[in-house]
Amino acid sequence: GLKEILRRATAEETEWDVHDCGTHSADAVDYPDFAAAVAREVASGRCALGVVVDAAGIGSAMAANKVSGARCAVCHDDATVLNSREHNDANILSLGARVVHRGAATRMVKLFLGTPFAGGRHERRVQKIMALERPGR
Questions:
Q1: Catalytic (active-site) positions
Q2: Among residues 40, 52, 61, 84, which one has the fewest Cβ atoms lying within 10 Å of its Cβ?
Q3: CA–CA distance, 50 with 130 (Å, rounded to integer)
């Protein structure tokens, strides 16, 4: 599936080391389990960035964003990928395998991995997003 294509392309065509949180079969799985596993790896600092894949990308993003420290963005094209990194400092990319063509998805992952956070005026806004995780917000 798409996850395997992205894993292989990232390992072969970028300088990034890939840590695969699964799934490792074609059987139906509960995507929240895998999205949470990726989010925990990123939020803990064990991984710098993450990518999650499900049919539409939405459910995995919802699950990942429940993990404190995760900023998971559902992206559909290059423009949304760039915005998610430059403006929102997204640390997880969520893709829908039934939404984004394989070639576009591969390009989008490379763009996500290679685009730095712009900081500046965006820093304050990202801090406000992260403050929402704290109790009483």
A1: 87
A2: 40
A3: 18
